[in-house]
Amino acid sequence: MPRSSQPTPEIPDTFTLYGVDYFLDWRKLEPGNSFFVPTTATPKQVKAVLKDAYADLPYTFELHARCEYGRYGVRVWRLN
Questions:
Q1: 6 in any annotated domain
Q2: In this predicted model, what pLDDT tens digit does every residue of 2-37 receive, in sequence order?
Q3: What whole-number distance in Å separates Cα of residue 78 and Cα of residue 31?
Q4: If 63 and its partner were Cys, which of 16, 33, 43, 59 is the partner (CB 3.0–4.6 Å)?
Q5: Domain hosting residue 37, numbered range
Q6: What whole-number distance in Å separates Cα of residue 48 and Cα of residue 2?
Q7: Where are the beta strands (DSSP E) in 1-80?
Q8: Is residue 48 in some structural domain?
């Protein structure tokens, strides 16, 4: 089967939320994995940033506000 001639989209390793850069290696984030973003942003605000920054990724996410490690933030799970 012939390969597609379209290049693979470049996936940035960082996203910025409220002026803070967060590093994330998307190549290691498998379905079911999660990460914690320490922030005062709501899950809806974090989801909007992720959706914009990673529009080329075919992933879906589940986000919930949480308090972990003594800090408020958002836990993000990759669903697919």
A1: no
A2: 555 555 557 778 899 999 999 988 878 899 999 999
A3: 5
A4: 43
A5: 33-80
A6: 36
A7: 14-17, 20-23, 34-38, 61-68, 71-78
A8: yes
